[in-house]
Amino acid sequence: MKLYDWLLAAYPSRFRERFGAGMHEAFAEDYARSRARGRLAACVFLATTIAHALCFGLVERLPRAATFRSFLSVDVRDAIRSLWATPIITAVAVLSLALGIGANTALFSILNSLVFRPLPGRDPQRLVMLTSDGTMTSWTNPIWEQIRDRQPDFFESACAWSPNRFNVAGSGRADFVDGAYVSGGLFRTLGINPIAGRALTPADDVRGGGPDGQIAVISYRLWQQRFAGASDVLGRQIVVNRIPFTIVGVSPPGFGGLEPGQAMDVFLPIASEAAIRGRDSALDGRSSWWLRVMARLRPNQTLEAAAAALNAVRPAIREATLPPDHQKMVAGFLNEPFTLASAPTGVSELRNRFEQPLAIVMSVVAAVLLIACANIANLMLARAAARRHEMTVRLALGASRARLACQTLVESLILALAGGVAGLALAASGAALLIRQLGSDVATVTLDVPLDWRVLAFTAGASLGATLLFGLAPALGLGSVEPHDVLKDQSRTVAGERRAGFRNALVVAQVGLSFALVVGAGLFVRTFTTLMTTPLGFDPTRLLIVTVDQVPADVPLKNVAAFGQRIADVMATIPGVARASLSHITPLSGRNTTNRVVVSGGPALSRPAEQTAWVAGVAPGWFETYGMRVLAGRDISASDVADGDAVAVVNETFVRRFVGPQTPLGRRIKGVGFGKLDCVIVGVVNDAVYRTARIGVVPTIYLPMTQFGRVPSGFSVTAKLTAERVSIERSLTDALRLADPTLAFSFRDYTDQVRATLVQERLVAMLAGFFGLLAMLLAALGLYGVTSYSVSRRRPEIAVRLALGATAGGLVRLVLRRVVTMIGLGTVIGIALILWASKFIGALLFQVDARDPITICGAAAVLALVGLFAGWLPARKASRLDPTVALRG
Amino acid sequence: MVKPIALHILLALSDRDTHGYALMQAIREQSGGQVPVQTASFYRHLAKLMDEGLVAEATGRREADDPRRGAYYRITGRGRQVLAAEKRRLLDLVAQMKKIRLSPRKADA
């Protein structure tokens, strides 16, 4: 409510007296209503209300006589002239605005692409997502086939897809392209027409291929990048995981897939998954949840009506797709309802991951823009003070105050527009740079950030808001200029300056904001470095991972482990490789296998979350390669063969949770629910991170590769190197080719894999650090500006003091006293800000409290040093003043 | 011609005197949400209507009402004249519209 009082101040007092109470009431009522509709609605309401109140309030202040023509012809011309007359101030202002607006626009354009922009195609408002609980959900192909075959009963149409990384290299080093398995009706459901050739149709999406055999649609981007936009691309072949697909169409340039951030450059029919994955195919897997399902409502059909129609046949669909081994949960499975959620912007893993960090960085850059605005306001005020004489003469000659105020506003507007245009240019490259940082070589991120109307509106809004912020003060300041006084003021006086209060307050606010930003930067940088240096429980240096996504088709399933072992043995013989060990996945790879288990004689655990253990299949010697230690019992050995006794090695955390204080060796682990796990603990290894450093150590079971339950057809070999990777990469490639000419594989440095788990933390630390620094510099600039201005105004006073015997040191102290007060006040404001913000950023921090005293003290010290230096420069200048010159001049 | 929101203000006041927020709500209901009503723009139009002498502040506040709601407004005699003229104009327009036949076309044929 206080806020609205402030806003009403934009109106002339006459208007306020007349309508203030009613407007206040209306605002309160509407605000309560918008809050009832959710936080987003309230934010939108507040933003539009602020904009409206400011615009309309200022319009009310305008004299009715000021016509648009006189505005254009006189004010704009005069404004440009007067800006041109002070090129340095103008340049500094435009540059800092460009930085501020540019950073804001860059972040907003990313947020826009990730969160706000609707999917291309026809009428995206009618697209809905099939979920079970409102979040992103995957479904099995049997369920999808049921829905597909019945879709006319519920929707206009429905589609399904599953993003996938395809290897288009044939054999040897893998060459990955992001793509997706999509249902035949996908393009029609989205309403997207190919720019060349034809789209996939339901007729193509049948097992064994449609009338044209195995076909693919590629994206415009892939067409340009890999085929150089060749006109004869239709009918050419693209080899995906060694299966040739005929290209029948090219999707239009604006269509990059259904999941912002996830590129889709190759579209294959879902049915072709059987051809690519062979015996691992999930097409008939009733417990392989890999497809996302989206539907288009009929015109005027409501979400609820469609959901009701769908749920009416739910029992039949569920009955027909019952997963095996599901006896205990059958009831739950049958009764779980289908939910539909509106999805005009598609779905996105990236959105879920980065929405909050981006929002925080967005508020950081907004604060930087505020600080920049305060600086410019100070510059403009100083400029206005220097032009008091000119303004006074104009007033005396009969110009109206409103007219003069209008002109200073026009000057500000021109500055802001110039800053906005430059910012837009900066934003384009800034956004591209940021998006590169979002990805890693483990998961590439592709996000188009076009300048659509939302981004342009945002930039225009930011520029206008900035204008009001820094242009209003000088314009309103004119109201109190009295020609009589000012003209008299031209005579020499030794009085100190007046009316510096507002400018000092601006600087205090700047210091406060930048203090908060510096503390935030410190917290995020500490989070990142803590995570980077957290002990993983193994030694990640000089590890090279060779990943085989799919073993050659002629290797029988039961021999996959032996095949992998052979590859590992081949690698171990290469000079420069100390050892090489096989495992089904590697730690921190982002892939997980979990099992719910209990241990005989262990504590009673009932909740599913407590029963969950993470499982990895490893070969003998794997622990040694990773530098892990066997603490009790034995390592997995070559004698643990497929049909031998089932054994397991567990980590310390597993022992603590599942076994308790007794000896773990010899105890039996049994699976719960789905799990068929049944093995005996033969060893304990030290704790090591399995998922990410932030999650920390989880209870882990290491099984022999030979006994690993679910037969994987892909595996990883981790090699401990004694030489540089580049020097042996070649011989490694040759050796693997020799071992099996059809093998497809990829290399990755282990450190890259660790780094990939910290992308978000690194990004936030980097941006917060950069903008914290920038904010501090801007605040220092503000301090410098305000101090040197006040020193220049006080020249006569200082000269008199010097003439009366003041020492240089005493003068410096005199000037610095005020600087110290401003920094002190600013720090207090900053601490209050940080305390308030701590609840928002807490979730992003790791092992450091948002109110961490060390960080706060450190930031205060840095800021005080920088601020004192900024104040000391003009203070020193003042102390070197020659009193005779100053008093005579 | 009167702007839609101004017309709605006059229309709402023709029935009874009321205070600002109730007036805004009445317009939202009358227009079925077709006319966007935002506090700032609403009061600008209200001020204009008052300057033109079509609407005036009503004297005598109702006892039971909350003083925070601000003033009550009433339509003036001139306001009623304008409203009546507007009504005639619109009715004429409707009559004209009824005479012509628009051949219906398919939306996206």
Using DSSP, what is the number of strands of chain A? 22
Mean pLDDT across residues of chain A: 84
Summarize the amount of helix of chain B as a percent range. 40-55%
Q: What count of helical segments of chain B does DSSP give?
A: 4
Largest sheet of chain A: 10 strands, mixed
Amino- and carboxy-terminal Cα gap of chain B: 36 Å
What does this structure look like?
The complex is a heterodimer of chains A (889) and B (109). Chain A has 889 residues and is of the alpha+beta class. Chain A contains 29 helices and 22 strands. In chain A, strands 1, 2, 4, 5, 6, 7, 8, 9, 10 and 11 form a ten-stranded mixed beta sheet that branches. In chain A, strand 7 (237-240) and strand 8 (243-250) form a beta hairpin. Chain A is globular, with a radius of gyration of 34 Å. Chain B has 109 residues and is mainly alpha-helical. The relative contact order of chain B is 0.17. The model of chain B has no long low-confidence stretch (mean pLDDT 80). The interface between A and B is medium-sized, with 22 and 18 residues.
Short description:
Chain A is of the alpha+beta class and 889 residues long.
Give me some keywords for this one.
heterodimer, A: 889 residues, alpha+beta, ten-stranded mixed β-sheet, six-stranded mixed beta barrel, 29 helices, 22 strands, 14% strand, B: 109 residues, mainly alpha, three-stranded antiparallel β-sheet, 4 helices, 3 strands
Secondary-structure topology with pairs:
The complex is a heterodimer of chains A (889) and B (109).
Chain A: H1 2-8, H2 13-36, H3 39-61, H4 68-85, H5 87-116, E1 127-131, H6 141-150, E2 157-167, E3 172-173, E4 176-182, H7 186-190, E5 196-197, E6 215-218, H8 220-227, E7 237-240, E8 243-250, E9 266-269, H9 273-277, E10 292-296, H10 303-312, H11 314-320, H12 330-335, E11 339-342, H13 349-386, H14 388-396, H15 401-438, H16 453-477, H17 483-489, H18 501-533, E12 543-548, H19 560-572, E13 577-583, E14 594-599, H20 608-611, E15 612-618, H21 622-625, E16 630-633, E17 647-651, H22 652-659, E18 668-671, E19 678-685, E20 700-704, E21 715-721, H23 725-739, E22 744-749, H24 750-756, H25 759-793, H26 795-803, H27 808-841, H28 853-879, H29 883-888
Parallel strand pairs in A: 3-22, 4-9, 6-8, 15-20, 17-19
Antiparallel strand pairs in A: 1-10, 1-11, 2-4, 2-10, 5-8, 6-9, 7-8, 12-21, 12-22, 13-21, 14-15, 14-18, 16-19, 17-20, 18-19
Chain B: H1 4-15, E1 18-19, H2 20-30, H3 39-51, E2 55-57, E3 72-75, H4 77-99
